[in-house]
Amino acid sequence: MANGSVLEPVVQTKPNSRRQWSSTFWLAAPPLLFAVASVLGLLVHNRHQTFLSSAAPALIGSLGFALAVLLLVAGIRRRFDACAAVIASIWVAGCLFHAGLFRFVRWFDDSYATVWSVPVAILLIGILTLAAARLPARHIRALHLALTAAAAVMVAAPAWDVAAFEWRNRAARTVYDPNKAVEEIAEFTKGTETPVVTARPPDIYYFVFDRFASAETLARYYDVDITETIDFLEQRGFHVVRAANSNYHRTGLSLASTFYMDYLDMLSERAPGNDWRPLQAMLRDHRVARFLKERGYRFIQFGSWWTGTFQNPLADENHPHGLGEFDYLYLRYTILHPLLQILPTTRLAQQLDWDLGQCQRVRPQIEKIKALGEQDQPLFVFAHILVPHGPYVFAPDGRCFTREEAEKRSEREGYVDQVAYATRLIQELVAALQSERNNLPIIIIQADEGPFPERDWSVPWNEASASEQRIKTSIISAYFFPNGDYSQLGENTTPVNSFRAVFNTYFGTSFPLLPNRIFVSPDEARLYDFYDVTENVLADYEDISALQRSAPAGSQSVPN
């Protein structure tokens, strides 16, 4: 060649995609890890009440937020580097850990974060952002490394706690076996695959108005008279249990028992004392739904934000009409909570707020239920309606209070107002379900528990006074059977016998009716230590003889 030079071959190498991906992930790690840590930090404090799947929406949302912030910062800086990741981490941590960073606010105001914390937070984040942007490259790299290490620890620590809890309580997953639960009642359901009625079997609507006390308790302790509603139901053909009680004093225990159609003795023997998940498993796949689905029913659930009823994988349709409990809790700890108090009051803003979200949930659910109508397939509809349960955001006529209006009301005033609204909803639903139908549906209207009385919370429930136990377990309870046959019901029927009575009356089953008993557990740490307080509660009634609970002759318990 000219000049005696030798051309060396040019070797073209392909970029190492694995190395590029590793480098990119390393740069993006801090804000993404902070996002994950914000979710796991809340999960570890609620691990005994929620499934890991309940945290999935918050985890996806937080990661999406962190990625959006990172891309926005990189776009503004026109480069993706360690500085962009550091600045993104400042914003992600400041927004997602807002309540924790401003915990001192609670010294002045008993709320998670006040409105004025937002401008303070933005100012501090802005100052830190400017400081990070001015740091020399070597300092930025060191800060990036420190933030990565801190975020990794914040992820690893709660992840370890959650994993350890899952391992310690692994036996809780096997406490309830839905297949075994169905097998255990087979002797009472033999030969009942076809309903007793010759025509289309009736739809079944089960309404739970959370914490709606009995008429007697409302009159005695709250000076509230719901005689008009009771008369309305009786005139419509309902069998009303006028001084009814729940079988348990907590929602999870009460609903699990109702759908299990038996008492929860097996939980006291096998379930960890503070683990709610066996109860939630019982609510996600229960005997009542299995029985009805096997007989051609379509199962539709209208859940609340509470984890136990928010979604049911066994249901053909779920209509929670809002966010779940974990999502609401998570948003409450972020900067979005005080921001919602600043931004204009829109429907979306209300849906994202724990308290105001109720006003965006209840009415749409009621309208959807009314619109179901008669279908070719018989329906089993379960609706868990958090009225008169707090938050107390409804006026007696159903109007949504503003935040300011709601905060001015005492808890007692709020409860009484929502009892009034609940009675309107009951009459509205019954009127709609009993009109323009060829086949009237079975309707059960109950509460799962009564309201919380004023009490000394250091005293366990099993040592509470008779009046306190009575208020907490008093419930509204009314049944409508289209055929008018209430022979399976009495003046003291409790929810554990509700579906036994329905199935015996309409499907020819042979379920024995169980003794009507009332149980409480001391506290959440001893959730499954059940104390029978039936006699204590009944002793507080003025006319004990008329309300004495007794089991029908020959009754027996379904084996657990």
Key features?
disordered N terminus, alpha/beta, two-stranded antiparallel sheet, 560 residues, 48% helix, seven-stranded mixed sheet, 7% strand, disordered C terminus, 11 strands
Description:
The protein has 560 residues and is α/β, with parallel strands linked by helices. 48% of the residues lie in helices and 7% in strands. The strands form three sheets. Strands 2-9-7-1-6-4-5 form a seven-stranded mixed β-sheet. Strands 3-8 form a two-stranded antiparallel sheet. Helix 15 (307-310) links the parallel strand 4 (298-302) and strand 5. Helix 1 packs parallel to helix 3 (82-96), helix 3 packs across helix 6 (137-168) and helix 11 (251-260) crosses helix 13. Residues 1-13, 105-112 and 543-560 have low confidence and may be disordered.
- Overall mean confidence score, pLDDT: 87
Largest sheet data: 7 strands, mixed
Poorly predicted parts: 1-13, 105-112, 543-560
Rg calc:
28 Å
Please give the alpha-carbon distance between the first and last residues.
94 Å
Overall form: elongated
